[in-house]
Write a structure and sequence with these properties.
- The chain is mostly beta strands.
- The protein has one helix and five strands.
- It has a five-stranded mixed sheet.
- The longest helix is centred in the N-terminal third of the chain and has 4 residues.
- It is globular.
- The mean pLDDT is about 90.
Length: about 80
């Protein structure tokens, strides 16, 4: 049985777009992403452009500008 809380992918941000997450703002907009959001509703690891882990997020689900919602900061499980 797989762990439903394990991250299925890494989502990288564009350079300089990690500032709001470092201030613990929980939303990540599509314009901040360096690539697409993986399909599905599984948790993803959010990383800065330099590869630094920023947190774990769930897909926004609306298909609009809100791409991710951060649910844990840093490298928390």
């Amino acid at each position: 049985m797989s762990d439903p809380f394990s991250c299925t992918a890494d989502v990288r941000l564009k350079p300089g777009r990690e500032v709001s997450l470092l201030r613990r703002h929980p939303w990540v907009y599509r314009g901040a992403l360096a690539g697409p959001v993986p399909a599905g509703r599984s948790p993803v690891r959010v990383v800065a452009a330099n590869g630094r882990p920023l947190g774990v997020a769930l897909p926004g689900g609306s298909g609009r500008s809100l791409a991710l919602r951060v649910v844990a900061w840093g490298e928390e499980p």
